[in-house]
Specification:
Number of domains: 2
Distance between the termini: 35 Å
Domain Glycosyl transferase family: 196-352
InterPro entries: Glyco_trans_1, Glycosyltransferase_grp1
Shape: elongated
Number of strands: 13
Structural class: alpha/beta
Radius of gyration: 22 Å
Organism: Salinibacter ruber
Protein name: Glycosyltransferase involved in cell wall biosynthesis
GO molecular function: glycosyltransferase activity
Oligomer: single chain
Largest sheet: 7 strands, parallel
Length: 396
């Protein structure tokens, strides 16, 4: 079976997923553009087990006129001749254009979604439009339980929804973290890491709630004895960096909270490997792949209950705990609890690895395969109304 998979821009996560899928399907990964303003990834290497096409390698997709974007997608579909096409999401111009072109060509599609009912404000009219767009797809590939439930709310039958979308290369983080632990002294010196620290990794944006994390961390330091307190390392960068640095100064945390900046994929395992545990405090998050990374590296995790991954990946008291991101006191108590649980960290970390083993690239591959087989058995609608709706949404 020939399956084409559309992504906005390939990063390391997309490559590992498509390599996994290429082991069980004939896969063509179609990348809309070679650049994105959201993620500053280095360019990833060609996949080992899938074909790769980039429509606009030297441009940002938002700079490509809609007519040119549509023509590029149409031409690529004609050249690739896929049996099934998987489309990431339903709101971007590229997703809408791919859905429209597939409907016009009679190609069944899979909607790949990590949206939940609670990750954004919902209005009745928008949900009705979304139901119509989502209904044009013949099956769905989603992150986990809350994403399945939301797609069902949008009218997709449960039998046509499959899990496994949100995966990372578990082996990359597991082996890299273990290598860092075996060479701890040199790695700690090379990366300038504290002797003991908890780790966070997030873009410096409002929903990541780094201000809330810092305030909870300050409260944690006040309630903990000096000899047991951990330092905090926060990976990432973004438009709120100056504001977050100012809060660090306000709370007098300059000597114990560290901002190393955005780190590329190959550097990440070292930071995970030498951390005691991981914390992710977002007020809203469709999934949270950094939690996958931390668990693959063998860390216990504290995860906001607003994260889409929390329900499936966090087993309370076994590999970590969930918390209300708006309750700094609750988070500070959990930071202290996790610090005191140092004797249990190895056990909890191993549990994290056992859980995340079921959510790697193999899960993406099997989910995509089942979704593709299901999509092939469903009829493809191509109405003038739906075509006009998609065209209107692309130009909004």
């Amino acid at each position: 079976m020939n399956v084409a998979v559309f992504f906005h821009r390939f990063g390391p996560y997309h490559r590992s997923r498509l390599d996994g899928a290429g082991e069980v399907l004939n896969v063509t990964g179609i990348e809309i553009s070679g650049h994105t303003s959201e993620y500053d990834w280095d360019e990833v290497a060609e996949g080992a087990s899938f074909n790769r096409i980039c429509l606009f390698p030297d441009r940002y997709s938002e700079d490509v006129p809609t007519t040119e974007l549509t023509a590029g997608i149409r031409s690529t579909l004609s050249n690739v001749s896929p049996d099934v096409v998987a489309v990431h999401g339903w709101s971007t111009r590229s997703a809408l254009a791919a859905t429209r072109e597939c409907s016009r060509a009679g190609i069944p599609t899979i909607v790949m979604s990590e949206s939940t009912a609670h990750d954004a404000d919902r209005s009745w009219i928008r949900e009705q439009v979304k139901r119509r767009v989502v209904g044009l797809h013949q099956s769905g590939l989603v992150g986990g339980t809350p994403h399945t439930e939301y797609l069902q709310q949008l009218g997709v039958p449960r039998r046509r929804i499959f899990k496994g979308y949100d995966a990372v290369d578990n082996n990359h983080f597991a082996t890299g973290a273990e290598a860092a632990r075996k060479d701890e002294e040199n790695v700690r010196t090379e990366y300038g890491l504290p002797a003991q620290y908890m780790l966070a990794s997030a873009r410096f944006r409002p929903k990541k709630n780094l201000s809330g994390l810092l305030r909870a961390y300050a409260a944690y330091r006040e309630r903990s004895s000096r000899d047991e307190v951990l330092e905090l390392v926060v990976l990432g960068d973004g438009p709120l960096r100056e504001k977050i640095e100012a809060i660090r100064t306000e709370l007098e945390l300059e000597g114990c909270v560290h901002f190393p900046g955005f780190k590329q994929y190959d550097d990440l395992p070292a930071y995970y490997g030498l951390a005691e545990f991981f914390v992710h405090a977002s007020t809203t998050e469709q999934w949270g792949l950094v939690v996958n990374e931390a668990m693959a590296a063998g860390l216990p995790v504290l995860v906001s209950d607003r994260c889409g991954c929390a329900q499936d990946l966090v087993k309370e008291g076994e590999n970590g705990w969930t918390f209300d991101p708006n309750d700094a006191n609750e988070l500070s108590e959990l930071l202290a609890r996790m610090t005191r649980a140092s004797q249990e960290e190895r056990t909890m970390g191993r549990k994290s690895q056992r859980i995340i083993d079921r959510w790697g690239p193999d899960a993406f591959a099997q989910g995509l395969k089942k979704a593709a087989e299901t999509a092939l058995g469903e009829s493809v609608a191509d109405s003038c109304f739906d075509s006009l709706l998609l065209r209107g949404l692309m130009h909004r």
